[in-house]
Amino acid sequence: MNLPPMNQAFVLHFGEMGSRWGINRTVGQIYALLFLSPEPLCADQIVDALEISRSNVSISLRELMAWNLVLLKHLPDDRRDFFTTPEDVWQILRTLAEERKKREVDPTLTVLREILLQEAATPAERHAQKRMGEMHRLIGQLTTWYDDVKGLETSRLAALLSMGRKITRLVETSGKVVSFARSRSRPVRE
Amino acid sequence: MNLPPMNQAFVLHFGEMGSRWGINRTVGQIYALLFLSPEPLCADQIVDALEISRSNVSISLRELMAWNLVLLKHLPDDRRDFFTTPEDVWQILRTLAEERKKREVDPTLTVLREILLQEAATPAERHAQKRMGEMHRLIGQLTTWYDDVKGLETSRLAALLSMGRKITRLVETSGKVVSFARSRSRPVRE
DNA sequence: TCGAAATTTCAGAAACTTCTGAAACGCATC
DNA sequence: GATGCGTTTCAGAAGTTTCTGAAATTTCGA
User: Fold this and answer.
1) A124-132 contact pairs (CB < 8 A, 24+)
2) CB-CB contact of A168 with B160 (8 Å)
3) A24 phi and psi angles, rounded to 5 deg
4) Strand pairing partners for B42?
5) For residue B71, is it left (φ>0), alpha (ψ between -120 and 50) or beta?
6) Is pTM, for the whole model, over 0.90?
7) Within A1-102, where are the H helices?
């Protein structure tokens, strides 16, 4: 592997974590390489840096593009495809959240909805349906929150994060804030 | 598979999703089975329900216990181990978040911290370090938020979720609320 | 201490995923 | 419509994970 020590350490780590993150080693390494690179890279540069086969690079780049985690760039007077990750790490976070939700949560929500439409015949099925209902409701609450928050611009999202649980204190401390929060109408006065 | 149709649909779905969630099919199916069951089950009941080998059940239960996703129960006058999932789906969510963070985020944070301590020699390394710094900072903000929020009781956590982005309006509308919020955390950099 | 019941370990088989090199394909330019 | 450059596809090899049945181990009452 033909990289400065720091970059190599990072790339190797992403390769190892890949399997925990639901991508494979090569995909993880390529992503890490592109994330660190100051310039877009073409496929052959990736081959040289990581010492893996050209076809492996091709397939892995496809997968990263399916995740919207890498972008295609074209340089003037060059037929080759070049690849980058988005500059803004917050944007990367949003993409990651969106894609993981799509793959890891939405299918379950769909299945739960379908099952919950059916008639429960036996007591065992009624109990199962109750449990699935609880799960469905929880996932629903989480995705509603996510859908609400995902559109925020970065500065507001960062502000939201930095507040953390403090917001619940507001709710307890001031009835006015609660009613404001719920109605979105009146300004807050102490 | 020896289950009511509803339960079977749910169990099969969890089996299929397993690989996306970083567990394998059997582990997913066993978890789903236990989640739906009104009673704790012993290993042989799981064997009968899912029609898989006893040793596979044993290993998969170990894994679920390592995740803290299933609990061991003992019935009086019965030597066998019985297994359940926690009742409360919010508790399950908390466990899941904790374990996934431990496996999927913490190692990266550690590696980033180590690499960022090193001296960057070349311009390429300086750029790489800048990128890793951005990633480190973002992950730090997310985990700080998570650490703050994870201890909330369910009703407050649910309240926080139901407010979603409305919180950020409070920040904009009312100087008092802003100063209150900032007095207990670092101001946000734009 | 023995034996019956339950659980765990383990080596190899089966299934699945990843990776490679070779061949096929696409497309500007001549 | 040939050439050259670049990309994608694909069959099979290599590697990894999962699963099983058999054997070993643990546990507890008699």
Assistant:
1) A124/B4, A124/B7, A124/B38, A125/B4, A125/B6, A125/B7, A127/B36, A127/B38, A128/B4, A128/B6, A128/B7, A128/B10, A128/B36, A129/B6, A131/B35, A131/B36, A132/B6, A132/B10, A132/B36
2) yes
3) -100, 175
4) B82
5) beta
6) no
7) 5-18, 25-36, 43-50, 54-66, 89-100
Q: Which bases of chain C come closer than 7 Å to a protein CB?
A: 5-10, 17-22, 28
At A82-133, the pLDDT tens digits run 999 999 999 999 999 999 999 999 999 999 999 999 999 899 999 999 999 9
Query: Please, how many CA atoms are within 13 Å of residue B79, restricted to the half-sphere of its CB?
Result: 0
Residues B164, B167, B169: CA angle, nearest 5 degrees: 120
Contacts of B112 (CB under 8 A, 6+ apart): A10, B132, B135, B136, B139
Partners of B82 in the beta sheet?
Answer: B42, B73
Residues 6+ apart with CB under 8 A from A15: A25, A26, A28, A29, A32
Amino acid at B32: A
Across the interface, whether the CB atoms of B144 and A164 are under 8 A apart is answered: yes
Taking an 8 Å cut-off on Cβ atoms, the answer to whether A160 and B173 are in contact is: no
- The one-letter code for the residue type at B81 is D
Q: How far is the CA of A83 from the C1' of C26 (A)?
A: 20
Q: What is the pLDDT along chain B (190 residues), one digit of tens a residue?
A: 889 999 999 999 999 999 889 899 999 999 999 999 999 999 999 999 999 999 999 999 999 999 999 999 988 888 899 999 999 999 999 999 999 999 999 999 999 999 999 999 899 999 999 999 999 999 999 999 999 999 999 999 999 999 888 877 766 655 444 444 444 444 444 3
